[in-house]
Amino acid sequence: MTAHTSLMDTLPAAPLVLGIESSCDEMAAAVLRGGREIVSSRIHGQETVHAPYGGVVPELASRDHVRAVSHVVEAALHEAGLTPSELDGLAVTAGPGLVGSLLVGLSFAKAFAYANRLPFVGVHHLVGHLVAAEVAGEADLEPPYVGLVVSGGHTALYRVGETGTPVLLGQTLDDAAGEAFDKVAKLLGLPYPGGPAISKLALQGDPRAVDLPRPMSRRAGLDFSYSGLKTAVSVELARRGGLESLDESERADLAASFEAAVAESLVARSVRAMRGESTRRIAIVGGVAANSRLRSEMRAAGEREGFAAIFPPMALCTDNAVMIAAAGTRLLERGVRDDLSLEAFSRVPIGDVPWRAPAPGASGPLE
Ligand code: KG4
Ligand code: ZN
Fold it and tell me: With contact defined as beta carbons under 8 Å apart, do 228 and 265 qualify?
């Protein structure tokens, strides 16, 4: 184990914690006071780097992170008006994610913590997403609740119990919902990232125009599947003679119909989960939680079914360092520390210690 619990270096009240996130194609740094108050937040995206390829190219992502990391951290400190010595702790995403991307943020964080003698802790990326809804959701949110994590890499439902430990209820059997948005965007000739581009085009389209399947609607349980929906869009395009044969309004109809199918399936699974749980709160987090149709349909379902659907603000749905600093502050306040042997790993368990990324090889309900 790289982690140890130390009572030696206790944190002051309302500690200033720097968060660093680099699990995919965003390099982000943020300073939080007391785990909640955003003192600064900077995000360096890589849209232009990956746009020509229609998706994230891992090697290009890590190279851009190497160029950006020190500038982004400096900018976050500058915006906060702080020097490194005024910080009380450092939190960094330890996984899951692209291993090369993770390594850049993690190596920088280790060096920074060592040089500035800061208590330092690794954070599970998905836990970060969930904590975003707890500290910045539109309504008060505390465990227990159900969490729907819906991003470019994950689509999963968790029960977040009293202790804050997420337990997996169901997950995608193939593509993540965000990945489906990105792939369908590519089919429709839209830029990366696909989610916002499809959403924008869908505003001009009719969501009932194209009859697309509702993934897993006849399957019991709480798992998801999106690769069939992507194939259905590609079959529909081929049937109509390819993208070139579609005019702008037909493209918009296809975008709107796809978006509606994804939103409907996410809502249907969430409703089923909520019927089986005693909590009346569900947090919807991750990049796809920024989708307006999903936000409104989930809220409407909540009103019908008697549950509260709680979203982080749009800016904290997609990857950011505020959520990592927030989750890290909780860990640091509980005395959890990592040392310089903490490694980046692409698949980490989520469940054995509340709100942290356990060491590689540790077991938990989610492998
Ligand atoms: O959480 P995130 O920033 O990164 C991961 O942890 O994966 O999520 C990125 C994903 C991308 O697939 C992107 O297309 C999707 O979130 N996304 C959206 C929207 N904004 C971002 N999907 C649908 N509608 C949006 N408005
Ligand atoms: Zn994410």
Answer: no
Cβ-proximal residues to 15 (8 Å cutoff; 6+ apart), any chain? 33, 34, 35, 88, 89, 329, 332, 333
In degrees and rounded to multiples of 5, residue 268 shows phi and psi of -60, -45
0.85 exceeded by pTM: yes
CB 118 within 8 A of CB 101: no
* Beta-bridge partner residues of 41: 30
pLDDT digits (tens, 9 = 90+) for 22-51: 999 999 999 999 999 999 999 999 989 998
Look at residues 190, 261, 268, 258 and name the one whose alpha carbon lies nearest to residue 223: 268
- CA–centroid distance, 359 to ligand 1, in Å, is 27
How many Å apart are CA 70 and CA 27, to the nearest integer? 10
Please state, in angstroms and rounded to a whole number, the distance separating the CA atoms of residues 155 and 34: 30
Q: Go through the domains of the chain in sequence order and give each one's CATH number.
A: 4-130+317-337 (3.30.420.40), 143-311 (3.30.420.40)
Helix axes 292-305, 194-202, angle to 10 degrees: 80
Cα-to-chain-centroid distance, residue 141: 18
- Number of the ligand 1 atom closest to the C-alpha atom of 319: 3
Contact 362, 130 (CB under 8 A): no
Ligand 1 first shell, C-beta below 6 A: 24, 151-153, 178-179, 181-182, 193-196, 199, 286-288, 290-291, 318-319
